[in-house]
Amino acid sequence: MENSSLGLTVCAESVSIFNAISNGERKIKTIVPTSNLDKPIHPCGACIVGVFYDLTRNND
């Protein structure tokens, strides 16, 4: 499932990771996408493939 993340934009999940890293965080354990909708939301495809997969592999 894909949300409306467009090719030349940066999604909220990536911005939160960039912000955490620029503020000194180096070990991210959890990212929780939230919204005010009454149904579950999903991260963009790039985050599912890259960010979330990487988090599952590198947090031993």
Multimer state: single chain
What gap, in angstroms, lies between the N and C termini? 28 Å
Mean pLDDT rating: 76
Number of helices: 2
- Beta-strand segment tally: 0
Radius of gyration: 12 Å
Q: Which strand-content bin applies to the residues?
A: under 5%
* Uncertain stretches of 5 or more adjacent residues: none
Tell me the series of helices and strands, N- to C-terminal.
HH
| Main sheet characteristics | none
Overall shape: it is globular
Approximate helicity band: 40-55%
Structural class: mainly alpha
Report on the structure:
GO terms for molecular function: catalytic activity. This is CMP/dCMP-type deaminase domain-containing protein. It comes from Vulcanisaeta souniana JCM 11219. By secondary structure, the protein is an all-alpha fold. It has a domain at 12-30 and 40-58. The chain has 2 helices and no strands. It has helices at 12-22, 45-58. The radius of gyration is 12 Å and the shape is globular. The model has no long low-confidence stretch (mean pLDDT 76).
Helices and strands in order, then pairings?
Elements: H1 12-22, H2 45-58
List descriptors.
globular; 60 residues; mainly alpha
Short description:
It comes from Vulcanisaeta souniana JCM 11219. This protein has 60 residues and is mainly α.
